[in-house]
Design goal:
2 strands; about 55% helix
Length: about 375
């Protein structure tokens, strides 16, 4: 039975779609690719979608084209991500599953080896029909500082179409590669493949990723200067982990790290990253995220420590012989025991616990004095 679907046109006319007794599905992702497709590409795609099991020769006969033209058109649509071969990483989706979730798309695996081979004529047609692509090639040449030959242009455009990324994405990757001292097209397309396989599949996600890398690199430089680690040596894995944790997990900038550094040096006399890390971890677990919050926290600690000299807050007649228990000093002593037992212990680190002349290596458990 023939059905009709009426759509109202801009000028009031109504056009019916005569589906007849047989229909076939056209992926919605075809639409943005039409501007780069030639007439034969579109005709052959429609013929293929109507008879996906047909042989190349049968499609050629139906379209009035030769086999080479059919193969070229199918190669174009493979490169555009509309069709796949049996051994391609991404299988074709059934029409009812056409609306693929973004999370699944990011998991799709693609390899450089599977990038379809375009002819120079096909690439020229794509470039001439889409100004954003031709502008991208011009800007890429400026970024990489070289004039592209035919091979470079073909490979760049083929990879862009195959991974279904836009010109902005390619330009961001190009700038990132140059920042690492890599200026070849081969390295650029390899980086695109690696980023895509990691789930970084669009320009917005890529921009966030590159900004995070830039922040981390800037922070590393500042931390090196702060802790007196010159550029003449690489950071150890442990040092890298510290910086990564401070930046990515804690979200701390250099202002907060500097506060922890100053406390570290004042307490231990050394620029100890493990000691500073313990302080930063304490602040993070206390919910402190901003420099002003930490300054207020430290001011409150100082007030509580020095506090009411009459002894209302801090002085207790307890098992420590009437001396007040200094929680901050105990915390510092614990850090020194863990991270700085081979260092000279400043007097103030153990004040209030075992006397001003105590050595951290000789501090044992505190035993309450016997009652007389």
């Amino acid at each position: 039975m023939e059905t009709e679907n009426n759509n109202e046109m801009q000028h009031g006319e109504k056009i019916g779609i005569c589906y007849g007794r047989r229909v076939f599905a056209v992926p919605s992702s075809v639409l943005p690719k039409l501007k780069n497709a030639k007439k034969n590409d579109i005709i052959i795609l429609l013929e293929f979608l109507s008879s996906p099991d047909a042989e190349i020769d049968d499609i050629a006969a139906s379209c009035g084209a030769d086999a080479q033209t059919v193969e070229s058109a199918l190669s174009f649509w493979r490169g555009a991500g509309i069709l796949t071969l049996d051994d391609d990483a991404a299988p074709s989706a059934a029409p009812e599953a056409a609306a693929e979730p973004a999370s699944e798309k990011k998991k799709r695996e693609r390899t450089l080896e599977a990038v379809p081979s375009y002819t120079s004529e096909e690439i020229a047609a794509i470039v001439s029909s889409d100004k954003s692509v031709s502008d991208m090639i011009d800007e890429c040449q400026q970024i990489l500082g070289k004039i592209f030959g035919q091979t470079d242009t073909v490979r760049l455009v083929s990879v862009m179409n195959y991974y279904n990324v836009n010109p902005e994405y390619i330009l961001l990757v190009a700038a990132h590669c140059v920042g690492m001292g890599k200026k070849s097209v081969a390295y650029l397309v390899s980086t695109v493949a690696g980023l895509y396989s990691s789930g970084i599949c669009d320009a917005d996600t890529l921009g966030e990723y590159l900004m995070a890398i830039a922040r981390s690199a800037t922070l590393e430089t500042k931390v090196r200067a702060l802790f007196g680690i010159g550029m003449q040596r690489a950071l150890s894995d442990r040092e890298k982990d510290f910086i990564s944790t401070w930046s990515e997990k804690y979200g701390y900038e250099i202002e907060i790290i500097t506060i922890a550094f100053n406390i570290t040096v004042d307490t231990t006399g050394n620029a100890s990253m493990p000691y500073a890390n313990a302080i930063l971890q304490k602040w993070f677990e206390a919910g402190l995220r901003k420099p002003e919050e930490i300054e207020e926290y430290l001011a409150n600690e100082k007030t509580q420590k020095n506090g009411d000299k009459s002894g209302k807050k801090n002085q207790k007649n307890d098992v420590f012989g009437g001396k007040s228990f200094d929680s901050e000093a105990f915390f510092n002593a614990s850090l020194l025991r863990s991270y700085g037992s081979d260092l000279a212990v400043p007097k103030n680190a153990l004040a209030g616990i075992a006397g001003n002349n105590a050595d951290i290596r000789n501090v044992g458990p505190v035993v309450p004095p016997e009652k007389k």
